[in-house]
Design goal:
- A nine-stranded parallel β-sheet has the order 29-28-26-25-21-20-19-31-30.
- By secondary structure, the protein is of the alpha+beta class.
- About 55% of the residues are buried.
- α7 crosses α10 and α12 packs parallel to α13.
- It folds into three domains: about 270 residues, Immunoglobulin-like (Sandwich), CATH 2.60.40; about 190 residues, TIM Barrel (Alpha-Beta Barrel), CATH 3.20.20.80; about 180 residues, Golgi alpha-mannosidase II (Immunoglobulin-like, Sandwich).
- Helix content is about 20%, strand content about 25%.
- The termini are far apart.
- The structure holds 2-acetamido-2-deoxy-beta-D-glucopyranose (NAG) (8 copies).
- The site of one 2-acetamido-2-deoxy-beta-D-glucopyranose has 7 residues, from β45.
- The site of one 2-acetamido-2-deoxy-beta-D-glucopyranose has 3 residues, from loops.
Length: about 900
C-alpha cells in the first residue's frame, strides 16, 4: 500500500472535497450526528483505503459513536465493487467467514477495467457508485451523514424518483408488494416464527439484497452483508431515498453492475455461492400434514393417493400433535402411535414403490430425563457441551413443542459431531427411520416462552407444551440426581474476546437495544433465544441470531451427507440467511388457505429463486392454516405444479386437503402433475443451470423484458425456466383472467396455437378450475417427456418429445441436462443443445450419460403450412399450426434435419 498524490486518486477513484454543512446547536437527534471526515487515504492497484474520523461531538444516541473508521474499497471484478466501512480496531462484530465465506477479491480488477466507478467526498464524508459508461449514479450517500455507533448504524442513499426496487427479503419473506413501495415504507430484518405470514411484517429470513431496475438504463444490485437486526426505510419526503438502520455490525457492501437483471442474479451468486443441485426425485410431488395421528393414518394416505391414481413421490410427517415424535421430542418416536417396526414397514413400502419419506427435525432438544431416545439426545448434548449457555454456564432453556428445551450452539466445534451422531443413530438405515431427505423447522430459533422467560418449566405447563400434561412436571425439566443431565458441564469453553478479532464491542445492551427495529414480536429477545447468550466462540446471539437457521442448515447438510455419502441431500428449511441456497431449499412457511397467500406465493417464489439464490422453493399448496376451499385448492394444485418445490401441507385443525379428498382436486392435481412431470427434465435442466451459473430458474417478467415498463410491477405471472410463462387465475371463483403478454410471439402450452403478444393485457375466458393459462415464449425449444408417470423413477424411462417454438426471427434454442439425478459426483452427464434456425433443426452436445430412451418426435409450432417432402413421417395440424415430425430414434447422439 503506498500513498499517492491526490491528482492520481481523483483520476482513479474520484476523490473530491466539499464544505461541511453548518449545524446549529440544539438537542441532539440522529439527524444531528456529526458524520465523518475522510482524513488520509492510500491505495493499491485495485483497492482504496481511507481513515474516517468522527467530524464533531459524538451524539451517542443509540450507544457510543465510534471515533475512527476505515473505508476499504476494492474493485473485485469488472462488475463487482466492494465497499467496507468498519472500525479501525476491528472490534465491531462482522459476519464470520465460516458462516458466509467472502468471495475472493484478491485477484481484483483495475479501476480502469471496471464497469463501476467509486467516488468519495471527504467532508462531510460520503461516497457514490456510478456506471462508467453512462455516468448513471447508482448509489450516493451525500446529503445524509453516516452514523456509526456501538448499537446503531445508519447510511442513506439517494435514489431516482419512483424507483423500481425488488428484493430485500421482503418479497421473499415479507408478504408485501413484489415491487417495493417507495414512500413511507419500512422493511425489517429479524428472523422470527410468524404463523400465518402476516402482511408487512418480518418473517423467517434475512436477505439484504435489492435489485434496482432502471429500464433501458440497466439493472444493478446492492448487497449488504450484515446479520444484525435492521430496518430498511424507503421514503420520498427528502428526495427519494433508501436508508439502512442496523443494530450493529459493519457496512459491508457489494455493488453489482448488472446491467441485465439476470446478470445481477449471477453476480450475486458469485458472493452468496451457487445453489445446491437437488435430487431429481425431489422435484416430484410431496404430501404432508401436521397431525397424522399414527402410522396407520400415514399408511392410509399413501394408499389413498395410489387408489386415486395421483402420483405421490414423497410422504412426509410433521412433529404432529401425536405425530411421529414421542411428546414432540426431536429424535424420538412415539412408541404407541409410531412404533419403529411400523415406521420401518412404511418406509420399506415407500422405497419398494420408488417413493420417499421425509420427517421434520427441530433444533430445540427436549430438556429432560432420558425416558426415551430423545431424552438421550439431550443428555448426550449436555455431556458434549453443545448447547447454548447462560452466563453462569448452565444450559439455556426455552420452551418449544416438547416443553422445556435446549438449543444447539452451531458455533461450537463439537456440535457438528453431536448432530452427525444423532442423525446416524436415529436415521440409521438398518434399524432407525431411514429418511430420504430432511425438513428443518423452528430455526429462527423459535421460542414460545415470552421474554424474559424466567421460568420455562412453568411456561411450558401453562402453555400446554407438550399437550399431555403428566409428562411435563417441573422436576422433569431440572437435572435429577443420578441422571446425566446434572453433570456439571466441563466449564465454559468460550473463547475470550480478543482485541481486533471482530467479536463484537463490549458493554452493549444486548437484550433490548436502545434503537427499536420494527420487529413484530416486540423486543428482539422476545419469542426467540435471549440475544445476550454467548456462543462457545465468544460471539453473541445479538449479532448472530439471523444466521441460526442457516447454520442449522449447513450442519444438517453435513449430517445428511455423512449418512449417505454419495447422495445429494434434499433439505427444506424455514429460516434462512443470505447464502443458504448452497445447502438447502425453503418452503415459504406457515401460510394460510387464502387467495392472498396463493397470490403472494408467486412474488415470494420469484424473490427466493431469482434474487436470493434459493431456487428450491414453494409455498404450502392449498394453504397450511385455516380451511381451504374447493376452487382455491384446485387452482393451487395447478399453480403449485410450477413451484420448484411442490408440496401440499396442512395444519391439524383444518379440513383434510389431500388431493384425493375431492373429485375436483383429484382432477386438477392429476392434470397438474401430468404437465409438471412432462416438464420435469426441463425444470431439472433449469435448476442445474442455476447451480452452474446462478441464472434463475424462476423469474419475473421484467427479467426477460427489461425494457418493457408494463412488466415492472407484474407479480402474479412468472417465467418457469426461461421459456414457460405461467399466468394463473388469481381471483376467487373466477373463470377468467387478464394476463399481460409482452410484444412477442407466444404459443399456448396445451394447444400449441400461436398467440401474438401485443404488449397489452389479454382477457382469457372459460378457464375452468382444472386449467391454468401457460404459454411457451417464442425462441424456445423444450425437451418434454412424451408421457407422465406415477413416480419420477418411472418417468425417467419415458421417451422425449421436443417442442420447437420459433421466435419472431424464426429461430429457437434450448437445452437438456441429464445425469443420474442423485449422485453428488457424476460419472457421466449429458448436455444436449437444441437449435433451430433457417428451417434447420440441430440436436448436438455431449451424450455421455446414457439416457436410455428415445426421441419420439420433434414438434414445430407456428408452421403456416406442412412441408412438401420430409425424410421422416409427419402429422400437420392446420388449426394449431403444429407440425409433428416422427423420429423414433435413441437419444444418444446428434440429430439434424431441415423442414
Ligand atoms: C417518511 O417520511 C415521513 C415524513 O417525514 C415520516 O412521517 C415517515 O415516518 C417516514 N417513513 C419512514 C418509513 O421513515
Ligand atoms: C451444484 O450443486 C452441487 C450439489 O449440491 C454442489 O456440490 C456444487 O457445489 C454446486 N455448484 C456447482 C457449480 O456445481
Ligand atoms: C412478546 O410477545 C408477546 C406475544 O406477541 C407480546 O404480548 C409481548 O408484549 C411481547 N413482549 C415484549 C417484551 O416485547
Ligand atoms: C374448518 O372446518 C372445520 C370443519 O368444518 C371447522 O370445525 C373449523 O372451525 C374450520 N376452521 C376454520 C379456521 O374456519
Ligand atoms: C365463491 O363461491 C362460494 C361457493 O359458491 C361462495 O360461498 C363464495 O362466497 C364465493 N366467493 C366470492 C368472492 O364470490
Ligand atoms: C398411475 O397408476 C394408476 C393406477 O394406480 C394408473 O391408472 C395410471 O395409468 C398410472 N399413470 C401413469 C402416468 O402411469
Ligand atoms: C461410477 O463409477 C464407479 C466406478 O465404475 C462405480 O462404482 C459407481 O457405481 C458409479 N456411480 C454411478 C452413480 O454410476
Ligand atoms: C420409446 O421409443 C422407442 C423407439 O421408438 C420405443 O421402442 C419404446 O417403446 C418407447 N418407450 C416408451 C416407454 O414409450
Amino acid at each position: 500500500m503506498t500513498m499517492i498524490n491526490a491528482a492520481a486518486l481523483v483520476a482513479a477513484f474520484g476523490v473530491a472535497s466539499a464544505t461541511a454543512l453548518a449545524i446549529e446547536p440544539r438537542e441532539p437527534t440522529v439527524a444531528d450526528c456529526p458524520g465523518y471526515v475522510l482524513k488520509t487515504y492510500s491505495q493499491t492497484e485495485n483497492a482504496f483505503y481511507a481513515d474516517l474520523k468522527l467530524a464533531g461531538t459524538p451524539c451517542n444516541i443509540y450507544g457510543q459513536d465510534l471515533q475512527d473508521l476505515q473505508l476499504v474499497v476494492e474493485y473485485q471484478t469488472v462488475d463487482r465493487l466492494h465497499v467496507l466501512i468498519k472500525d479501525v480496531a476491528n472490534n465491531v462484530y462482522q459476519v464470520p467467514d465460516e458462516v458466509f465465506p467472502r468471495p475472493d477479491g484478491a485477484a481484483g480488477c483495475l479501476p480502469s477495467e471496471s464497469n463501476l466507478v467509486f467516488s468519495v467526498v471527504t467532508e462531510p464524508f460520503s461516497f457514490a457508485v456510478a456506471r462508467k459508461d453512462s455516468g448513471e449514479t447508482l448509489f450516493n450517500t451525500s446529503g445524509s451523514d453516516l452514523v456509526f455507533e456501538s448499537q446503531y448504524l445508519r447510511l442513506r442513499t439517494q435514489l431516482p424518483d419512483q424507483p423500481h426496487l425488488y428484493g430485500l427479503d421482503m418479497t421473499g419473506e415479507h408478504t408485501d408488494p413484489f415491487m417495493l413501495n417507495t414512500s413511507d415504507y419500512t422493511r425489517t430484518f429479524w428472523n422470527r416464527d410468524a404463523y400465518g405470514t402476516p402482511a408487512g411484517s418480518n418473517l423467517y429470513g434475512h436477505h439484504d439484497i435489492y435489485f434496482d431496475h432502471r429500464g433501458d438504463k440497466g439493472t444493478h444490485g446492492v448487497f449488504l452483508l450484515n446479520s444484525n437486526g435492521a430496518d430498511i426505510k424507503i421514503n420520498d419526503t427528502a428526495g427519494q431515498y433508501l436508508e439502512y438502520n442496523t443494530l450493529g455490525g459493519v457496512f459491508d457492501f457489494y455493488f453489482l453492475n448488472g446491467p441485465e437483471p439476470r446478470d445481477v442474479s449471477r453476480q450475486y451468486a458469485e458472493i452468496a455461492k451457487l445453489p445446491a443441485l437437488q435430487p431429481y426425485w425431489g422435484l416430484g410431488y410431496h404430501n404432508c400434514r401436521y397431525g397424522y395421528q399414527d402410522a396407520y393414518a400415514v399408511a392410509e394416505v399413501i394408499a389413498n393417493y395410489s387408489k386415486a391414481g395421483i402420483p405421490l413421490e414423497t410422504m412426509w410427517t410433521d412433529i404432529v400433535r401425536k405425530d411421529y415424535m414421542e411428546l414432540r421430542r426431536t429424535f424420538s418416536l412415539d412408541p404407541e402411535r409410531f412404533p419403529i417396526e411400523r415406521v420401518r414397514e412404511i418406509v420399506d413400502y415407500l422405497h419398494d414403490h420408488q417413493q420417499h419419506y421425509i420427517v421434520m427435525v427441530d433444533p430445540a432438544m427436549y430438556a429432560g430425563p432420558a425416558t426415551g431416545p430423545s431424552g438421550g439426545a439431550y443428555s448426550r448434548g449436555v455431556e458434549q457441551n453443545v448447547f447454548l449457555k447462560e452466563d453462569n454456564g448452565s444450559v439455556y432453556h426455552g420452551v418449544v413443542w416438547p416443553g422445556v428445551t435446549a438449543f444447539p450452539d452451531w458455533f461450537n466445534p463439537d456440535t457438528q459431531d453431536f448432530w452427525n451422531s444423532e442423525f446416524q443413530m436415529f436415521f440409521d438405515a438398518d434399524s432407525g427411520v431411514d429418511i430420504d431427505a430432511l425438513w428443518i423447522d423452528m430455526n429462527e430459533p423459535s421460542n414460545f416462552c415470552t421474554y424474559p422467560c424466567s421460568d420455562p418449566a412453568a411456561f411450558a405447563i401453562s402453555s400446554g407444551n407438550p399437550p399431555a400434561p403428566p409428562e411435563v412436571r417441573p422436576e422433569s425439566v431440572r437435572p435429577i440426581s443420578g441422571f446425566p443431565g446434572d453433570f456439571q458441564p466441563p466449564g465454559l469453553q468460550r473463547r475470550a474476546v480478543q482485541d481486533g478479532a471482530m467479536m463484537g464491542l463490549p458493554d452493549r445492551e444486548l437484550l433490548d437495544p436502545p434503537y427499536h427495529i420494527n420487529n413484530a414480536a416486540g423486543i428482539i429477545s422476545n419469542l426467540t433465544s435471549n440475544t445476550n447468550l454467548v456462543h462457545s466462540n465468544g460471539l453473541v446471539m445479538y449479532d448472530t441470531h439471523d444466521m441460526y437457521g442457516s447454520m442449522m442448515s449447513s450442519a444438517s447438510r453435513i449430517a445428511m451427507e455423512a449418512r449417505r455419502p454419495t447422495k445429494r441431500p434434499l433439505i427444506i428449511t424455514r429460516s434462512t440467511f443470505a447464502g443458504a441456497g448452497k445447502d438447502v431449499g425453503h418452503w415459504l412457511g406457515d401460510n394460510l388457505s387464502t387467495w392472498f397467500h396463493y397470490r403472494i406465493s408467486i412474488a415470494q417464489m420469484i424473490a427466493f429463486s431469482s434474487m436470493f439464490q434459493i431456487p428450491m422453493v414453494g409455498a404450502d399448496i392449498c394453504g397450511f392454516g385455516g380451511n381451504t376451499t374447493d376452487s382455491l385448492c384446485a387452482r393451487w394444485a395447478l399453480l403449485g405444479a410450477f413451484y420448484p418445490f411442490m408440496r401440499n401441507h396442512n395444519g391439524f385443525d383444518s379440513i383434510a386437503q389431500e388431493f384425493y379428498q375431492k373429485p375436483l382436486w383429484t382432477e386438477a392435481a392429476k392434470y397438474a402433475i401430468d404437465y409438471r412431470y412432462r416438464l420435469l427434465d426441463y425444470l431439472y435442466t433449469a435448476m442445474w443451470q442455476q447451480n452452474q451459473t446462478g441464472d434463475p430458474s424462476i423469474s419475473a417478467l421484467y427479467f426477460t423484458y427489461p425494457q418493457d415498463t408494463n412488466t415492472f410491477n407484474i407479480s402474479e405471472q412468472f417465467f418457469f425456466g426461461d421459456s414457460i410463462l405461467v399466468s394463473p387465475v388469481v381471483e376467487e371463483n373466477a373463470t377468467s383472467v387478464d394476463i399481460y403478454l409482452p410484444n412477442d410471439i407466444f404459443y399456448d402450452f396445451f394447444t400449441y396455437e400461436p398467440v401474438q403478444g401485443q404488449g397489452a393485457m389479454l382477457h382469457l375466458d372459460n378457464v375452468s378450475y382444472t386449467e391454468i393459462p401457460v404459454h411457451i415464449k417464442g425462441g424456445s425449444i423444450l425437451p418434454l417427456r412424451t408421457n407422465s408417470a406415477n413416480t419420477t423413477t418411472e418417468l425417467r424411462k419415458e421417451n422425449f418429445t421436443i417442442v420447437v417454438a420459433p421466435g419472431t426471427d424464426g429461430a429457437a434454442k434450448g437445452q437438456l441436462y441429464v445425469d443420474d439425478g442423485e449422485s453428488l459426483v457424476q460419472n457421466a452427464t449429458s448436455l444436449i443443445t437444441f437449435d433451430y434456425s433457417d428451417k434447420k433443426f440441430d440436436m448436438a452436445g455431449t451424450f455421455d450419460y446414457d439416457v436410455g430412451v428415445s426421441v419420439d418426435a420433434v414438434i414445430f409450432l407456428g408452421q403456416a403450412q406442412a412441408p412438401a417432402v420430409m425424410g421422416y413421417g409427419f402429422d400437420y395440424n392446420a388449426t394449431s399450426q403444429a407440425l409433428r415430425v416422427n423420429i423414433g430414434q435413441p437419444l444418444n447422439g446428434p440429430l439434424s434435419f431441415s423442414l
